[in-house]
Amino acid sequence: MPVSTLFPGQLRHQVYNMDACFYNTLGIYSFEAQCEMLAEIGFDATYLSLWTPQAFQDLDKLRHTRERYGLDVAAIYVVPDLAQGINHPKNLMLLDMIERLEGCTTVEIAIQAALPGIRPSDPAGDDRAVEWLMAALKVAERRGIDLLLYSHLSFWVERHEDAVRLCKRIGHPNLGIVFCGYHWYARDGADLARALASVGPWLKQVNLSGSRRDPNGFAGVATIEPLDEGELDNFQLLGELRRMGYAGRIGFEGWDWGGDIYGKPDRSLRAYRGMEARLNANPDWAVLRA
Q1: Are 81 and 88 within 8 A, CB to CB?
Q2: pTM
């Protein structure tokens, strides 16, 4: 696991910031500027979402990211178009991307629609999703890459239970789950311990967000904020992760942050390291009564 152990019982997780925060209404910060800011703030890793033609061009830069910026690459984020069939050009392009990927060993996969017209979480899409994932896993296994299912509000794989269902059916060691704090909170937001326990056997990455329920938030459900804002109790979430023995990377989501894009990741990292230190010193503080 990518983590530094200080001494028994005390963990210091590697931390990354997702690149969504670097997109705004005026444009997109360059990959170089993103990495320079994250390194200066004190992050351990960067992240690349394959949303734009420029992002695909930035793929070749990942092999040099450690050397140039002192940063690992936590993951690549992709959204296959399974509603169009596994041989849709976008899906074939993603398979080729996994084949050629250098400098990163994790691909996070958010499946927006597995079949036309099906609703989020509908098992009717399972066969189509499994067909593409099996094709991707053949490449991933050969290349030593993990594919992690990314549960996303309003997507077909919307709940972590959907990701668990697919992992159980496929049963491949290179297939896992990323636990998304915001999307769990916005979709369900209850019984955190049960939710984390359900994904535990496949959990390989975690991302966090400050959030509060608000009709003006993402998808009309909840906001996505820096970690020092919102109602979502990330200290308890970290406590539950500690109790289950999670020692992997922790990321910050950052979608739609806008504003001072240096200040918000900086605030989030400071807030996170504060919670981590308090949890190391006082693990019982994160045990809540029902």
Answers
A1: yes
A2: 0.94
d(CA 179, CA 246) in angstroms, rounded, equals 11
Where does 8-117 show beta strands of DSSP type E? Answer: 10-13, 15-17, 23-24, 27-28, 45-49, 72-78, 106-109
Judge contact between 233 and 212, C-beta under 8 A.
no
CB atoms within 10 A of CB 83: 17
CB under 8 A, 24+ apart: contacts of 130-136: 130/166, 130/169, 130/170, 131/86, 132/80, 132/82, 132/86, 132/91, 133/109, 133/166, 133/170, 133/175, 134/170, 134/172, 135/86, 135/95, 136/94, 136/95, 136/98, 136/109
Q: How far is CA 241 from CA 199, 206, 247, 287, in A?
A: 11, 9, 8, 12
Which CATH superfamily does the domain covering 3-286 fall into? Divalent-metal-dependent TIM barrel enzymes (3.20.20.150)
Sequence-distant (≥ 6) Cβ neighbours of residue 220 within 8 angstroms: none
Strand, helix or coil for residue 95: helix
DSSP 136-199: HHHHHHHHT-EEEEE--TTSSS-SHHHHHHHHHHH--TTEEEEEEHHHHHHHT---HHHHHHHH
Q: How far, in Å, CA of 187 to CA of 198, rounded? A: 16
Helix (H) or strand (E) holding 285: none
User: What DSSP state is assigned to residue 284?
Assistant: G
DSSP 22: G
Length of the chain: 290
pLDDT of residue 203: 98
Query: Which candidate, 243, 251, 239, 233, places its Cα nearest to that of 276?
Result: 239
Note the pLDDT tens digit of each residue in 48-74: 999 999 999 999 999 999 999 999 999
Residue given tokens 């990377």 in the structure block: 249
